[in-house]
Amino acid sequence: MKLDRLMWGIILLFIGGVLLLENFGVITFYWRNVWSFWPVFLIIAGLNILFNKNNSQTGSIISIGVLVVALSFLFYRGQQVPERGSWWGRQFKKDVDINIEHNNDDDDDDNNSDTSFNHLSLSEPFVAADNAKKTVLNISGGGISFNLDGETDELINADVKKKHGNFSLKKLLTDSATVLTFQMDDKKNKWNFGDGGNDVNFKLNKEANWDILMKLGAGEANFDFADYKVRTFRFDGGAAALDIKFGDLLPITDVIVKSGVADVKINVPANSGCRIKTKTGLSAKDFDGFEKLSDGVYETSNYKISTKKIFINLDGGLSNFEVSRY
């Protein structure tokens, strides 16, 4: 048996075994814990290429041994409860901060925990004359937790709680669009998985027609677009956690997600017809309420008759994709 097939077989058995144990409640597995170790798969792939060419039995044993040790570590790490201090658990920490904000006795402690962060507010005004155009929002960065924190009378407001990096918000007017570019200029921390990340809370104007294009090296995004007119949402990224909710205010919404290692949850309204196309490699898929039409194609039962439609394209190497209806 060829080494590459044997190694991929072991990886598939590992993923399938974890999913099976998790589905039966034998273990609780936190996939977000293992995303930061995704470079181990590059090491494994390199060993596979190196020893497969030489057809060395010793090399094959070494490769398989490294793979088994790495998967054993990931199995152990995945069962650990995520630390609240990491940017994966940042949202939980925010909820706690909100609950204790009105307790005067804890004000000093809360302020002290925030001393290592700098706050920055960026915004662009809403111009009614430009609203006939589409509004394109380009977002890029890494090691960031993004959240949608309600609406604003301005076109956009970004409240940044930063620990590193330089952030900017720029506006460009074209004949057909208002183009906003929000970015972090910090290449060194683009793939930062540590607990020193940044938080960005967006407020968006509900009158605008949004096209949102997001490039995220590593991080998380929690966007509830149910009350916003989002025509396009496109995500390109590496190791990330996405939790996105869409509404039915427009006749057509396009959702495109391309990821390396990600945990992706998408919520769509039940009265909208939805079609999913996937190209997902070793990714796990859970499409509740969808019918499988063919390999990689899924639809809701009301897709053909619905006047509101959502098209979802998913492309991931080793990710977890969930699409549900509400």
From TrEMBL:
<feature type="domain" description="LiaF transmembrane">
    <location>
        <begin position="7"/>
        <end position="69"/>
    </location>
</feature>
<keyword id="KW-0812">Transmembrane</keyword>
<dbReference type="Pfam" id="PF22570">
    <property type="entry name" value="LiaF-TM"/>
</dbReference>
<keyword id="KW-0472">Membrane</keyword>
<dbReference type="InterPro" id="IPR054331">
    <property type="entry name" value="LiaF_TM"/>
</dbReference>
<protein>
    <recommendedName>
        <fullName>LiaF transmembrane domain-containing protein</fullName>
    </recommendedName>
</protein>
<feature type="transmembrane region" description="Helical">
    <location>
        <begin position="6"/>
        <end position="27"/>
    </location>
</feature>
<feature type="transmembrane region" description="Helical">
    <location>
        <begin position="57"/>
        <end position="76"/>
    </location>
</feature>
<keyword id="KW-1133">Transmembrane helix</keyword>
<feature type="transmembrane region" description="Helical">
    <location>
        <begin position="34"/>
        <end position="51"/>
    </location>
</feature>
